[in-house]
Task: inverse folding
């Protein structure tokens, strides 16, 4: 079934949802975006995603064409129009139509695109058996070059690392920052468990402040698990008991091998499995 797409100020048919070849989102990756899930017709952490989008826009000095409450309503309208029960929303804001030059000030109206569609998850088997990962040689963007907290349309830094993962026949790669500390995976945040304590690299180590990461930390805390945000090295990843990733699309997924070294006993660990279950309950509204 053809989708209804929100383009700028209203819904249009998928076939009519087109942007200009002069849009700086296309020419320069100049823009910001969000990926949001729908579970049982409920939009997951919508306010948090909208807040992050506006913060990203503010950092790159991109003006939004509507207010936060108006954008929330536009997202809800798009989800309803496509009758999405379980799905994925892609929210894209570009600098808009300009000239071939870099100058963002000639782009008057930013383009707003909202797509609500089905989601392609990792296969269930990967959640049960766990995923393999490798360390990327591509260093995460230096925060003074482009703050990794900005969810910008320029994902080449992550894509370079993703290529390294795929070259090694694994779906994900660990990215380290310019100081050698663990930053994040190419599209997910990183957690490890050692001696029953849950560790996450601080956002300042060079990651997106993941919405799923925030939820996982809250759920772990509620379960009485000590959560410590501190710089982690490759050594920490090699000696940990459990390792998992968090993200909107992946949710919580166990890592069982890194750079050819087995993590724990080679299966997703008990804390990983418990947090995955709690996350599912939370997302589907089985608990508050
Ligand atoms: N890091 C990067 C680079 C991402 O693109 C994402 C989102 N896919 C995440 C982390 C996870 O963030 P969230 O939980 O908000 O999806």
Result:
């Amino acid at each position: 079934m053809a989708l209804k797409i929100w383009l700028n100020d209203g819904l249009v048919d998928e076939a009519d949802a087109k942007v200009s070849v002069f849009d700086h989102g296309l020419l320069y990756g100049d823009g910001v975006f969000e990926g949001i899930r729908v579970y049982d017709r409920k939009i997951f952490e919508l306010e948090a995603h909208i807040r992050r989008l506006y913060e990203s826009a503010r950092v790159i000095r991109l003006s939004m064409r509507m207010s936060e409450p108006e954008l929330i309503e536009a997202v809800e309208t798009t989800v309803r129009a496509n009758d999405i029960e379980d799905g994925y929303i892609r929210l894209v804001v570009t600098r808009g139509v300009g000239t071939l030059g870099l100058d963002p000030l000639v782009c008057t109206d930013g383009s707003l695109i909202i797509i609500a569609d089905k989601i392609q998850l990792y296969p269930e088997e990967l959640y049960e058996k766990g995923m393999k990962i490798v360390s990327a040689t591509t260093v995460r963007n230096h925060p003074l070059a482009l703050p990794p907290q900005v969810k910008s349309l320029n994902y080449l830094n992550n894509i370079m690392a993703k290529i390294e993962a795929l070259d090694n026949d694994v779906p994900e790669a660990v990215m380290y920052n310019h100081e050698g500390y663990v930053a994040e995976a190419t599209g997910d945040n990183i957690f490890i468990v050692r001696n029953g304590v849950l560790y996450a690299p601080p956002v300042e180590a060079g990651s997106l402040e993941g919405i799923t990461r925030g939820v996982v930390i809250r759920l772990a805390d509620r379960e009485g698990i000590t959560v410590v945000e501190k710089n982690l090295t490759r050594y920490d990843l090699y000696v940990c008991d459990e390792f998992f990733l968090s993200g909107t699309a992946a949710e919580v997924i166990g890592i069982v091998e890194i750079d050819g070294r087995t993590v724990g006993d080679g299966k997703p660990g008990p804390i990983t499995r418990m947090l995955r279950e709690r996350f599912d309950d939370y997302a589907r509204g089985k608990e508050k």
Remarks:
- The mean pLDDT is 97.
